[in-house]
Amino acid sequence: FKYSSKDKIFQLMTEVDHIEKPSEEVAQDVMQETFIKVWQNGNRYDENKGTLFTWIVRIGRNTALNTINSK
Questions:
Q1: Radius of gyration of the chain (CA)
Q2: Which of these, 43, 37, 39, lies nearest to 59 by C-alpha position?
Q3: CA nearest 60: which of 24, 23, 8?
Q4: Over pLDDT 90: what percentage of the chain?
Q5: What pTM, to 2 d.p., does this model score?
Q6: How far is CA 20 from the centre of its chain?
Q7: Among 13, 47, 48, 58, which one is least packed by beta carbons within 10 Å?
Q8: Which tens digits make up the pLDDT trace of 36-47?
Q9: Cβ atoms within 10 A of the Cβ of 56, count?
């Protein structure tokens, strides 16, 4: 069994705060919103503050928390 990059990123996003993994539909929505935010805010990434991967996971984590808290 091989994880895709998307699966690994979502796993890291949810493990940080012990977030219960949502339904597949909600997970896909969170991932899509995460990558839209990454695309729209790419100019704000600062490599001096951390890796690109860490930046993406942080955006995803916040997106996941906002989505879960809004329901």
A1: 12
A2: 37
A3: 8
A4: 27
A5: 0.71
A6: 14
A7: 48
A8: 999 999 999 999
A9: 19
